[in-house]
User: Fold these one by one.
Assistant:
Number 1:
Amino acid sequence: MSSSAVITTIGRNAFQDCFRLSNINLQVCTSIGPYAFNGCKKLGEASMPLISSIAESVFQGCANLSSVSCPSVAKVGSYAFYGCSRLASISLPSCSIIEINAFNRCVALSQVNAPNLTAINSRAFQSCDLRSVSFSLVTTVEDYAFDQNQNLETVSLPLCTDFGENVFRSCHNLKSVSIPSFSGTPSPGMFAYCSSLSYIPIPTDGVSLPSNVFAGCESLESASFSQCQTIGAGAFMDCYALSDISFPVCTTINNMAFNGCSSLVSVSVPGCTVMGRGAFGLCENLASITFGSVSVFEEQAFAFCKELLSVDLTQATLIKSMAFEQCEKLTGISVPLCTELQERAFANCYSLVSVNLPSCSVMHESVFTNCSNLAFASLPLMTTIPSYTFYGCENLTGIYAPNFSMIGSWAFTYCALSQANFSTVVKVGPRVFSGCESLTTVSLPNCETVEFGAFDGCSLLTTVSLPMTSIMSTWAFQRCVNLSSVYAPSCMIIGESAFNGCLSLVSVSFPTCKTLGSYAFYGCSDLKSAYFRDCTVVGSNAFAYCKSLTTVSLPNATEIGSYAFQYAYDLSVLILPKCSKIHGGAFLGLSDLYLLSNSVVAIPSTDIGQVSTIHVPRSLYSQYVNNSNWRYYSRKFAEY
């Protein structure tokens, strides 16, 4: 569709979404309303010699528009040419103002001639293909005006004094910027991700730098600001080539300011007293840094600074989470005033050898996790060792913590401690000493609870003294293959697999234990005798495969779980005076068994095991023989 009629005025929305309109005569037109040709996808050219102002969204979405002539236009309205993806060039000799988003997403637009232009509003040329920007009269450029012009190489704005945020963001090929009249503070993100920019194109005597101003400037090698006192968040983030910085009077470095500056080796900011989150994080080659009296180190302040050799923490009172995580070459720290260490503050500091925290009373989880060379830690004020604190500290042999009463889960897992003698501890959390293969003795005189897996896999552990412990949870001493002595006279509950695989246990006595969990002593091949005075319930497989077991005394047991004594080949004496119930397979594989009880023990109709001879009291012999559930074994009974 085309129109050859003479038109002087076109109203609002007049031809909006006329998808087939391809040509229109605007030679004598003096006024075009907003949205007049919006969405006319086949319209290829527009010549408007008498139009003085292009209204809002007039040609928005005209994807085929490639030629525009408007010599008299003084102002281009917002969204006027938004998304005109084939428009490659435009001449605006009379234009002084280009409003917001006017040419946004004109992805082919590489040339703009506007010699009288004075103001460029927000996002006016965002996502275009401009190669050069030269506007000699422009004084104001608003937010994101040239954002994502990825082929833009040179900028000349000699009179411009006012720049909005992210004006040149993501102009990846920008190499030359001339803004000689600009003397104020740059805007946030002004040159963010201009990855080809290799120098600072603004005055360097300002007192502050805003956030993200040079973030992602991958080619920038040096930055010197003699009067700068405050560096904004992310100001130089991911400036990978930045190797030389000078900020002699800087007092504040905000969040992420130099994060990812992997070429920085040495930094001196002698007046700095505030260090923000991630300020130097991921500066992988940073070996030394000098700063002022910093009392709080924020999250990830130096995280992953793998070459950092030392850091002055003498004034630190608070070190937040991950502040120095994976500072792999940090060998020692002195923190005399620090009262709190947060999560993973020094995790994965592989070269850290010793730690002295004389003032620390609050510590969060995983503070020294995987500090594989840490040998000694002094924590005189700590009352609780949190979870994972020394997890994986495989060379930790000594710890001074005279006041702690609680040990969190996995706190010493895989450490090299040879002794665990802690007189004040009342609770040992899950997996606390699991995998401590050098641990030989444990003395916890006031410990009340040992939680699951606390000593699992401590292969050299031989002696355990737990006089006050009432609960030994699941897997508590599982796979302690050299454990030969356990003293726990107050224990009331032994959890599932608590001593599973303790091959060196010979004799056990838990007079106060009331409940014996499943698999509690499973596979204790050297165990010969067991005494459980108060035990009422024996769990399934509790003594299964205890091949040396000969005598078990359970004077108050009322129930024996399934397969409880299966393949305990040498078991001959089983004292069960009060037992009333035996579950299936309880004695599977036994040859000779004495049942010491005051009444007939109840069994299920299912098989309790192929026992060769069952010795029962003479006074109960006939009752056993005539009992319906025992009848299957009637020929195996013998009196005693």
Note: The two ends are 116 Å apart (CA to CA).
Number 2:
Amino acid sequence: MPCEKSAVPRYNQTLNGAAAGRTIRVLVVEDDGIWQHLVGHALRNTRSAVTFEATFAGTLRQAREHLTMGRFDMVLLDLGLPDSQGLDTYHAIRKTAPDTPVIMLTGTDDEQVGIEAIRCGAGDFLFKGENAFNDVLVRTALHVIERSRQDDVLRQSERNLRGIINAGRDAVIVTDLQSTILFVNPAAERLYGQNAEQLLGARFEHELVAGAAGEISLKAPGGRCAVVEMQVAAIEWQGHPAFLASLHDVTELRTARRKLHKYRENLRVLVAERLHKVDAEKELLSVTFSSMAEGVIVVDPDKRIVLFNRLAETLAGWEFEPVQDRPLGEMFHVVDGRTGQVQDAIVDKVLRIGRTQFGGEHDILVGLDGRDRPVSMVAAPVRQDEDRVIGVVIVFRDISKERRLERLKEDFIASISHELRTPLTCIKAYTETIIDDDRMDSQTRGEFLRIIDQESDRLAQLIEGLLEISRLESGRAALAPGRVDLCRLVEKAAVALRPVADRKDVRIETLVDPRLPAIEADASKTESVITNLANNAVKFTEPGGVVRISAEQRGPLAAIRVSDTGMGIPPEDLPHIFERFYRVGATALKVPGTGLGLAIVKKIVDMHGGSIEV
């Protein structure tokens, strides 16, 4: 049937709602011309304060074309159309215009179909009759439109609320009364580490009571336990009673509070400790200075002494002198050991150019106690900032020991030169004599050759000693540990030294505990220790004397003892006898040697983790 439009005049009647005062577009889907006329008449003669504009369609196809091409505020729908019947007609209209409210037009026999349509979402239904298309139609239409508008507002509010819930940082979970999860927001997905599909339909593991609030524990992603504040409210969800649980993860807050509490406690303890240590810091600085191996003096820009350590006090001879704030020049005297000239320019130079300066090679510290000490000295600026020098720190140390070692080395070079020259001279002299005397008898020749052999052995031992101390001090000598029979080593050393001892009329005695077990050691180096000690004893024992070598067990250790009836060692020499090149009275006694034997012994004993004493 052809479509037509009808303009309905506006009447002055008040209508509550958004429809008042505007034109309402209605699509009438009816294939019967009589009913089309009645509907049009009812819409044209309304007494409401609205204007209805009706568009007619006689088939479902025409209705869908109109709905596709334009927007309508309402659809009046007859379920019986030439190209569609029953609820299929309604569903087709809803599919085309899902948000447009629909009023069903049905005959008396189709009441049940109208009720079913309302259940499917229709706004209302009207029976076709003489009284159907008067004020009842208009009131029903306005009521459906207003209710649709309210439903739109409600749906928008629901969308807004969902948006707020989904954007919130707190997890929101909706369950039915049996704790089956019906809804979760993205925050809940993050809290559980699962997506909505995994959570929906699952059971919420905690009891829900309307109005309840408190903390619960949840198993969070990664196996960690999350502490959550939960609040529960009773709501209606999709027409059914339900619970809404709001979950706020306070794990980090609890952790932060614990850390804050711990920090406050630590801060309290730290402040107490700092307050307690304020007075001790100066003492600590003094102890640090006192434990340094160098003397330290700090002066201000006027070269007045502001700080010094105990070693500086000792080396400078200040024990009985007030030093604080005294001029450095009055209390600290360094001279050139060659010229005696005072060396006081080093501090002035640091103050002037602001760079570290070093003392001279021949500096001598003249103490107030009258003692002279060779020193190595360095002075460095104390800066407040990059450009300002506020003082000078002077660090110096006593190098008397180094100087003594240098003298010992010089003595050693002289001694070793003599020791090397003596056998070489002897060897050369006897060799030349044998070469030049063709008529030398065999006995004399044999005696000369024995002397050459002995001097060669002496030269070889000297060179081996030098090589051995070099290997030991450089770390190139390694131990070859094994089971060592001390009894056998002692006897072996005694047998080797008896010819030398016999020539001096010195007797060698051995005393070894036969129950002494084997020890774990380097056999060759242990033999060297025993031989060096015993040989030293033989050299410094006068004719008729005795050298004793013994070995015994002392607890878990083995002790080797070498004693003699010689002249002994002066007390002042005892601290130095194991130093390289050091010799006790060797020059006066004319005893040949290099001063390396006991140094080699000490190194070998240290390598074994043992100890040696006199």
Note: Residues 251-291 form the longest helix (41 residues).
Number 3:
Amino acid sequence: MDIRTKIYSALSTIAAMTAIMACSEIDNVANNHYLGDGRISFSASTAAVDGGTMRSAEAKTQNLTSIAAQTDDGKTLYLHTTVTPIPVDTAATTMRGTKTESVASIKDFGVTAYKTTNAFAADLTTAGTQHFDNVKAKTSGTPSTSSEWNTYKIVSESDVEDPYYWPENADKLSFFAYSPYDIASFGTSTGKVTLSYTADETIKEQKDLLIAAAFDESRANQSTFSQSLTFKHALTAVTFEAAADLFPCTITKVSLSGIPTTNTYTYATATGASYGTWGTTGSNVKTFDFPLNVKVTSSTATLTSDTDETTLLMVPQTLPSGATATIEFTDAALRKHKLSYSLAGQLWEAGKQVKYTLSSSSITSIQIDFAEVYAQQSGSDALGATMPSFKTSFAASNEAVGLYIVDIVNHKIVGSNIKVNVSSAGEGTIETNGNLSTQSFLSDQTGKYKYFAYYPYKDAAGTYYTYTELTGLAAGNATTTTSEASAEAFFKDYIASWTPPTTQNTLAIIDQYDLQAGETTSISGGKLTIKLRHQMGLAAIAMASSGTSSHEETRTLDGNTTNTKYSSTSTTEYYALDEFSDNLPYKVGTRNTADLRCYFLVNPAKTYTFSTTYKYADADAQRQW
């Protein structure tokens, strides 16, 4: 007799009492998650696979790899790989071959529960017993994050309620779930719960597998007997696109071959950031074909997507030898081309969207990282005071860097002072008024060029955001291995001539003249990333709150017959004024206080003088110091 039989037997003795309950009271009990009778129900929510909710606006793209292949007529085309977390808060969808992106898409799920006396991790292999196995939990309404409609009842295969109950003693239950129901199968391995899943070979029949787990829950912990489960994306979404820089052509087919479609997920044994891990490599190798007729002109062309139900939803794994992406297209001259790219060794992660982009350029995007804050990263300056809020990122608009491209094989500048507008996140776009076109800049000769950038973008006359070449750094000028070594060497003369103003009494002025520079030869997944470094120094001046000086005072006393001198030594308190007379720094604090600090941006190659006065506490006399 299982626990359900026991409770049904007990309930039969009070049938008369339940029969006379008002209908409204019965409905109230049901809608409040069976308060009082111990039935197990569930509520659901969604989150990113890394353990924290990933909102759409926060999704960050990683550029990972670029693979090159040549057409029959010698053109090099690149397949760039970018990875973005799958968002969970966008509009819900119920289509096949698309991603579940809202709790409203979770209509049902399969769930297994184990009962243990102690913690699940310690008991499963010794005293743990299965409370129920792969039962179906289903909602009768539209789920939401609140209200009684976010209630999932345990039902039979015919969707009739078939409840299980919480243990009446102190035993604990641990739950393991997946959604949608009946697309995966539970198992165990070395004391751990596993889930086996196979991606459907028919793309439009694929479903987005979600997983959830909760450990060591008990009846005493449940005020309503409803167990909350947070579902996370368990698969990898794979899509294809053609970049805007691709020459005019028609994409006729995209294929993925040598791709394992079956893998096993092993659940963790305790609460953590991740519910578990997938096997390193899957099995059941298949090929997926996408017949297409997509014309590529001057804008990015989507080849597969959620819209046409062609997003591949695949098991996470490290792709084995033989995993290949193949793209077929016809060019403007009606010549047919077929390019294959090996994907062996690429990692497909749970909860991530992998996008493969066909491009004629080795660089498809630019990332400029702002320099780190001055001085100690703890936020204190060299004098131990809290640092002011100096600028640590680009503004939301009207920010730009100057970009130089050097051919380090032939040692010459091939692109000079190209204006790159940058967003607050450092994402760069090239201004068209530079002396090098976008197509030329996005070179397919990776490793031949080195890229140098400086900030703020500025012409030789000091006008911001106006294109011109910096002195001595024109396109075509020769370079040397020495000048190519670093941004400091490349911009050596420009850095030496940089002159911050004598008046720096606001943070805005310091930020405006904070010269930064950096360089790179690294291109990852089509993204060029340059990390800037501060080229100026920051002087931190401590203004002492007060001080004392001892000095001798001599007075002449006028007597009747002779002059008499009287001498004594006294101590006088004084403090520094913050009224500078030449270089005017940015001040933090107030005069005659212990926390007064002054900051001034300096060129390390130059000499600076800071002049002010001190004042006696008991007199108006001031002396230069």
Note: The chain has a mean pLDDT of 77.
